[in-house]
Write a structure and sequence with these properties.
With 341 residues, this protein is of the alpha/beta class. It has eight helices and nine strands.
Length: 341
């Protein structure tokens, strides 16, 4: 769409905010309509039952995960291809020491509300919201995280938000995972946006696991706010969907300083993350902006940490980093809304 050419990354040509067009069903239109009508009441009944009843029952995390799996399976998302760096396919169970452990940070791409459901099933984590203007995080509930996949991009946290840093969350919940979405908003999965500085509050000993989630077909992403109807139709009308999940080996705010960096806008080939080193510390200040920093308030070593994690996410997702972020998406959403009037 040429009218939105200003929202393509100049270096790579990637347009991370445009919705992915769905394939036309053609002769299979009656089948798609039947699947949608059949699944719709089941899907929403399961959602309502979980959030109104199941999540409050003392049935433990295993029972709640089983309920969430049922929700995920209802639209036909039956196949999840999960792999880890440096682990041969099909042997993850024999390398459990490389899998994320409680007390670590899951740095995930953010393209769809299904990201939230899957991460909830696998890790039962504490979800957080990141903002480009602060290093602090806002802990949010599972439902809030799902709704956030459909909300407009936010540069500033709400006045009522409770903001904390990563060490504070881990101190309060030492046996839980923390999920951080450093892009702050959703994309169509074709590019990695500029990061929030929220990851920089992690200590040098906290393990960070970059995690990429992608879908086939890719039209069940939600790069546009309030795209509930389109998302639900694409999700429930297709016979099946598949998910590709890639988890990198652990890195940290210290090990990222010793790793080579590729500039944004370039492609990434497959490779392995460096193992965790704990010989240096990065800054853990909580406010953005200071003298001797770049235009985004980051010191050179802090920029290197974010670039390294961003590079890894791009490689895992087989896409590219782009020089755009929340501000550019906000402008895109306004332009999109004007063109639809």
């Amino acid at each position: 769409m040429e009218r939105y050419s200003q929202f393509r990354d100049r270096a790579s040509g990637v347009a991370p905010f445009l919705p992915v067009p769905a394939e036309t069903p053609g002769l299979y239109w009656p089948l798609h309509l039947f699947l949608f009508c059949f699944r719709l009441p089941i899907f929403f009944s399961l959602l309502l039952t979980y959030f109104l009843v199941v999540q409050w029952l003392p049935i433990g995390s295993l029972g709640k995960k089983a309920a969430l799996w049922l929700i995920i399976a209802t639209p036909g998302l039956w196949w999840v291809d999960l792999q880890m760096d440096a682990v041969k396919k099909g042997t993850i169970s024999t390398h459990s020491n490389l899998f994320p452990q409680p007390g670590s940070v899951i740095t995930a791409s953010f393209t769809s509300p299904l990201d939230i459901l899957y991460l909830a099933v696998i890790f039962d984590p504490i979800f957080t919201a990141s903002y480009p203007t602060t290093r602090l995080l806002q802990p949010i509930s599972l439902l809030s995280a799902i709704i956030r996949a459909f909300t407009p991009p936010q540069e500033l946290p709400p006045n009522s938000a409770t903001l904390v840093d990563i060490p504070t969350i881990l101190k309060r919940h030492p046996r839980r995972y923390i999920v951080v979405f450093p892009e702050c908003t959703t994309t169509n999965g074709r590019g990695i946006l500029k990061f929030s500085p929220s990851l920089l509050t992690a200590s040098a000993t906290t393990k960070i696991y970059p995690t990429s989630l992608r879908y086939t077909p890719a039209d069940i992403t939600s790069p546009l706010p309030n795209s509930y109807i389109t998302f639900v139709w694409n999700l429930l009308s297709k016979p099946t969907h598949s998910m590709r999940v890639r988890i990198a080996q652990a890195t940290s705010t210290s090990s990222a300083l010793t790793s080579p960096i590729m500039s944004p806008g370039k492609g990434y080939e497959s490779g392995l993350l460096d193992t965790v080193h704990e010989d240096t510390r990065s800054s853990s200040e909580t406010l953005v902006g200071s003298e001797d920093r770049d235009s985004e308030g980051l010191a050179p070593e802090e920029r290197r940490v974010l670039d390294r994690v961003g590079e890894t996410l791009a490689r895992l997702g087989r896409n590219k980093r782009v020089g755009m972020g929340v501000k550019e998406k906000r402008d895109f959403v306004r332009a999109w809304a004007r063109s639809r009037r």
